[in-house]
Amino acid sequence: MLNKEEKTLGKRQYHIHLSPGDIGEYVLLPGDPARSNRVAEYLDDAVLVAENREHRTFTGYYKGVKISVTSTGMGCPSTAIACEELINIGAKCLVRIGSTAALQEGISIGDLIVSTGSMKNEGTSRFYVPDVFPAVPDFDFTRVIIDTAREMQKDGGYGFFYGINASDDAFYGETPEWIEKLHSLGVLNVEMESSAIYTVCHRRKVRGAMISAVSGNLITGEVIYETENRKLAEGWDKEIKVILEAISRFDRELKGRSNA
Asked: What is the helix (H) or strand (E) element at residue 189, kind and residue range?
């Protein structure tokens, strides 16, 4: 009987078209392939190393740390595949970046949100763990992201929040009643990938995290669907700056521990 993990570990990967050595241990995970290009602009010596289906990957450096970015496409199924294959070839820390819709008052377009846990309103994670099993990011890395975002907020001009988010499967299946339920539970925001990332990372014993820029607020009605969302684009740049700096600091922290 075929064991997919054993069959694919340490080899060229079927979906993302990457091999060992192509990526850094830190990998950013936007949904949109075009956002991989956006991240690459902030990396030194960035090189397009692969592009297949929805997965576009660049590898470069930030303050001497080798970092990659691989787009996942929308939703948990393709995201889980990307995570599994990236881990197969050496990824140790996977970080979702991208867009999210706010579910509480006081959160505006372009603000940044760091996830401390994800409500699993999707089917992919059920293949890995029971429904009652939590989906949570790595605590140590998330702590560094929160501290970095707070510090950079002073000059960044963005609102900053952290808390529990929801990962939904159906963008157009979210009824007003469903949105109100999430709001009443105190869920900060909703997106479509983080619960799968946390679940796969837990099972594969690597680190997972998420920082997102707010695209709109489903409670206040501040949404932009038909025109360019400039504040969101500004939020993407802010989250990229925060996460790259957080990775640099976290990498130094890990090396300090190993040398102690």
From this structure: strand 189-191
Total residue count of the chain as it appears in this document: 260
Phi-psi region of 165 (alpha: psi -120 to 50; beta: other; left: phi over 0): beta
- Evaluate whether 62 touches 176 at the Cβ level (below 8 Å): no
Which domain, by its residues, includes 154? Answer: 4-259
* Encoded amino acid at 158, one letter: Y
Measure the CA–CA gap between 83 and 229, rounded to whole angstroms.
29
Cα–Cα nearest to 237, from 210, 213, 216 = 213
Domain count, the chain: 1
Which CATH number fits the domain that encloses residue 201? 3.40.50.1580
Please report where in the chains the tokens 């008052």 appear, as a residue: 105
- Output the DSSP codes for 57-126: EEEEEETTEEEEEE---SSHHHHHHHHHHHHHTT--EEEEEEEEEE-STT--TT-EEEEEEEEEESSGGG
Tell me the pLDDT tens digit for each residue of 52-106. 999 999 999 999 999 999 999 999 999 999 999 999 999 999 999 999 999 999 9
The phi, psi pair for 26, rounded to 5°, reads: -100, 125
What pTM does this model have? 0.96
Asked if 188 and 104 touch (Cβ cutoff 8 Å), the reply is: yes
**Backbone phi, then psi, for 110, in 5-degree steps?**
95, -15
